[in-house]
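Hypothesis: this fold can be encoded by more than one sequence.
Test: take the structure tokens below, design a sequence, compare later.
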């Protein structure tokens, strides 16, 4: 029952936070933080028994029930969402704006709903709530890049949601059951629908767009939600699947390779989410006991250290006004930032060591379980080791150019709550690394391995050592200030970006032109029809008709002149393409009516099949 109370409380607090004044809003967010920490404690202490179901009836409003259950996979996912979101709320309590905090409360409640949903009706409801709440959080940054990124995010996520819906319906037709579990029919639709939110290589583009354009306090919460909810969902619907396994392996390589090319701290972290989620996807695809335990433990560990890294990068942005490595390089007369904001720098080091799999940090434990699970699965095991070296290399670049070599004037220092959150999460990465047995009871298959033998400690440390050596050799090559050589362009440029940008721009122009002429025809037809019905044309004399003809001719000349101006207009630079420039479009161009109709159709189909199930 406490699951329902927590979800309901977060949803109720959302509008209150939005309308509350400054002091009450901060009190409410501190209260939400305390509630989530207490909920995480209850899960960890085992006070929520496994496989206990709860049905909430709402027959009075026409809905039969919401069904929740405490599946073993859902318990560790719910623990992770509650714990890390609490630290995220703490971090942003003084710097996040009310609308983003309200959206974050809905997003966290949605992620918890996905984790504990017992049937696909409940699951899909919270899945789509998570999609739209995250999309709104991105849009609330209200910058040009955020508006574009938010719309692109919604395009990808709504597409994935529809695939998932059709998979649910196909499985229902085949089995007559809506219980969450491995589907009998529609498996490709399940995998693709969930895969889009998991940032599979074929559909990863939304992630670096969204996570780097949202305001920095929101990025901390976002990094913990969408992809991790998708990994949990994938673990519930997929048994052994070699295709999923190697998609995950490819994600680990691709993610760190793209991260090496970035000049923006949060964009580097965003691309590395793809790499780390790849470990989880590979473990889920393997579907062995160690594979699933390693994947779900890595889900928790990744949420902690990646949230910590986003906190550190956000603190640099908050304190210096920039997150660009080029701008942070600064002139020699400016001070090193590590001397002025030591807590974010230490937090960045802890996060980097944890994500690299340094012994005695939490990332080492989950990576060791996955390494053990893939010991006899080749070439996947070798490729995951290569990805470990690439991760260490990436975060050598992150620390060296973003923190240790960075010089800048400090505009303001991180707030108390920001520093407190970074300190607590840093301690959590160390505690769960040194005392791995604390989290073992939450693992679905209770995997327990000898993590800290001398051989295993050396095995974990050597990947970091290799990464450091490679960074020393390639340091100048990886310096963002250096002009990229041909190899760097070939390897590090996102090959899809140019095609997608051009295609989207052309389609937007076509859609705008089509919509414009449809409006002209509609308005012209309406005017003619009104004149015919009122018989106004009979009352107009020859002079009036001649005057109207002249006005029509002038209008035609004006339209032709406008078209010639558009044709003569020079092509804008690449960075100025208004692919989704909301401010320059009318509401008709956004096709909001079509989006609303699609959403209503989705709700209708889901309700129809829910009520008429056998």
């Amino acid at each position: 029952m406490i699951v329902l109370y927590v979800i309901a409380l977060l949803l109720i607090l959302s509008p209150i936070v939005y309308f509350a004044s400054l002091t009450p809003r901060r009190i409410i967010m501190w209260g939400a933080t305390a509630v989530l920490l207490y909920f995480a404690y209850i899960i960890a202490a085992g006070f929520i028994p496994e496989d206990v179901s709860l049905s909430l009836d709402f027959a009075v409003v026409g809905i039969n029930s919401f069904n929740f259950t405490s599946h073993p996979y859902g318990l560790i996912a719910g623990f992770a969402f509650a714990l890390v979101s609490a630290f995220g709320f703490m971090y942003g309590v003084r710097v996040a704006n009310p609308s983003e905090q309200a959206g974050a409360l809905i997003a966290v409640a949605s992620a918890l709903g996905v984790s504990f949903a017992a049937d696909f009706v409940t699951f899909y409801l919270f899945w789509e709530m998570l999609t739209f709440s995250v999309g709104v959080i991105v849009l609330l940054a209200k910058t040009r890049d955020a508006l574009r990124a938010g719309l692109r995010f919604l395009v990808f996520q709504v597409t994935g949601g529809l695939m998932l819906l059709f998979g649910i319906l196909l499985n229902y037709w085949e089995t007559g059951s809506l219980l969450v579990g491995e589907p009998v029919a529609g498996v490709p639709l399940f995998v693709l629908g969930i895969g889009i939110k998991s940032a599979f290589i074929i559909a990863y583009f939304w992630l670096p767009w969204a996570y780097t354009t949202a305001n920095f306090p929101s990025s901390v919460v976002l990094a913990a939600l969408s992809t991790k909810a998708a990994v949990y969902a994938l673990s519930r619907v997929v048994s052994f699947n070699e295709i999923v396994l190697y998609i995950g392996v490819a994600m680990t390589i691709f993610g760190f390779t793209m991260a090496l090319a970035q000049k923006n701290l949060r964009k580097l972290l965003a691309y590395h989410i793809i790499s780390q989620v790849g470990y989880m996807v590979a473990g889920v695809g393997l579907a062995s006991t160690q594979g699933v335990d390693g994947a779900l433990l890595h889900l928790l560990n990744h949420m902690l250290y990646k949230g910590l890294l986003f906190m550190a990068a956000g603190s640099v942005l908050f304190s210096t006004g920039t997150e660009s490595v080029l701008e942070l390089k600064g002139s020699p007369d400016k001070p090193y930032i590590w001397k002025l904001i030591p807590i974010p720098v230490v937090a960045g080091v802890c996060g980097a060591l944890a994500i690299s799999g340094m012994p005695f940090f939490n990332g080492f434990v989950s990576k060791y379980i996955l390494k053990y699970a893939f010991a006899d699965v080749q070439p996947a095991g070798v490729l995951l080791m290569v990805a470990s070296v690439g991760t260490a290399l990436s975060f050598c670049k992150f620390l060296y150019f973003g923190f240790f070599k960075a010089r800048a004037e400090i505009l303001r220092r991180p707030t108390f709550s920001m520093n407190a959150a970074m300190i607590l999460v840093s301690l959590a990465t160390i505690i769960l690394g040194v005392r791995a047995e604390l989290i073992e009871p939450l693992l679905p298959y209770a995997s327990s391995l000898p993590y800290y033998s001398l051989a295993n400690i050396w095995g974990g440390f050597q990947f970091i050592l290799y990464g450091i050596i490679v960074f020393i050799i390639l340091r100048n090559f990886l310096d963002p200030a250096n002009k990229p050589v041909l190899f760097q362009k070939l390897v590090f440029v996102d090959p899809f970006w140019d095609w997608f940008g051009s295609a989207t721009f052309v389609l937007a122009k076509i859609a705008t032109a089509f919509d414009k002429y449809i409006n002209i025809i509609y308005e012209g037809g309406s005017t003619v029809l009104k004149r015919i019905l009122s018989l106004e044309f009979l009352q107009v004399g020859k002079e009036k008709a001649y005057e109207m003809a002249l006005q029509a001719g002038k209008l035609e000349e004006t339209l032709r002149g406008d078209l010639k101006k558009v044709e003569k207009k020079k092509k804008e630079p690449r960075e100025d393409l208004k692919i989704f420039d909301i401010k320059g479009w009318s509401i008709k161009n956004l096709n909001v009516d079509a989006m609303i109709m699609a959403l209503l159709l989705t709700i209708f189909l889901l309700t129809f099949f829910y009520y008429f199930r056998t």
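The chain has three domains: 1-226, 239-492, 495-580. The first strand starts at residue 53 and ends at 58.
Hypothesis status: open.
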